[in-house]
TrEMBL record:
Keywords: ATP-binding, Ligase, Magnesium, Metal-binding, Nucleotide-binding
A GO cellular-component term linked to this record: succinate-CoA ligase complex
GO BP: succinyl-CoA metabolic process; tricarboxylic acid cycle
Domain of life the protein comes from: Archaea
InterPro entries recorded: ATP-grasp, ATP-grasp_succ-CoA_synth-type, ATP_grasp_subdomain_1, Succ-CoA_synthase_bsu_CS, SUCC_ACL_C, Succ_CoA_ligase-like_bsu, Succinyl-CoA_synth-like
Source species taxonomy: Archaea, Candidatus Parvarchaeota, Candidatus Parvarchaeum
Residue ranges occupied by any ATP-grasp domain in the UniProt entry: 10-244
Regions crossing the membrane: none
Protein name: Succinate--CoA ligase (ADP-forming)
Native source species: Candidatus Parvarchaeum acidiphilum ARMAN-4
Molecular function per GO: ATP binding; metal ion binding; succinate-CoA ligase (ADP-forming) activity
Amino acid sequence: MVDLLVHEGKKIFKSYGINVPSGYIIHSFKEAKKPEKESVVKAQVPTGHRGINGGVVKVKDKEEISKAIGEISSIDFNGFKAESFLVEEMVPHSKEIYVGLTLDRSKKMPILIISPSGGVDIEHVPANQIKKFYLDILLGMQGYVKREAFNFIGLSENYREVFYNLMESLWKVFTGEDCELVEVNPLAVTSSGLVALDSKVTIEDDALFRHKNYQKEYTSSDPLEAEAKRKGIAFVRLGGDIGLIANGAGLTLATIDQIKLAGGNAGDFLDLGGTDDPEKVAEAINLVKKAKPKALFINIFGGVTKADTVAEGIVKAIKGSDTNIRIVVRLMGVNSQRGIQLLKSNGIEAFTDISEAVKKAVEVSK
């Protein structure tokens, strides 16, 4: 996925007719202009919680802009440093709303999430302050959805038309830009209408061929996922304590299930695909180790992939490493016995039977 910066998301919003504050991007204080009114400086990083981490600073003049840039530049935002800054005018408003469009993968449908309590993480908003609407991809933002959403957030009648138009525009952004997420938090209620004070736009990886202007050095709010992406490796965080490397999406998903059935929880997992390049294998292991799992389970089923060359990469990765992460390997297929022998001779627990291997991986993770 590609997490756009705030100013990139707002540029898209503006192109679809959504109001955003006046502002401009700078990379250093030298590019700053004298603010005509009270403004804010916002860190441009592809991750959330910028405000609570000091990434949004109010300013009144160029000196305060300079000070704000200095302060923001020193902050680590979940592994990212701000290299650009959005300077935009403050927008007086009477109310803040949350509006988000995303995908519910379990129902295979887009979902609209709305709350009259904007400006805070939606996860922290009470359930009775949140309303969700499942949307038919073919019918889009239907009239009843707009009516019920408008009534729920409690705006006065003179905002109805502008709110309806905003809902239509957000739906067009979501579908037209191939988004996984479009979020406005907060959406400000002003005397003249509705203004998107913030933006969070995430674009689906598989649609990047249609959005080449969004391809950039980092494509994820997670530094490890971004690093893996740059190296052409499929890497996903799950939150468990057993790191997993396997070859092929089907085998990877099946292994996650087996770990769960054995009483464990898969954490970060990495799909090697069909490679048996020792350098690539070593690179994959070093990447997963950065996530600091309690154990690392490697499951390789070799058809075209040669198990012994995979084993060479595993040995290469652990040699000279100061990590104390326990590694368990399951090798099956071409030259698997040769690979297992190589692993065992280097002190790595290796199996051909998947059940035994999974059981051991769960055991050493406890």
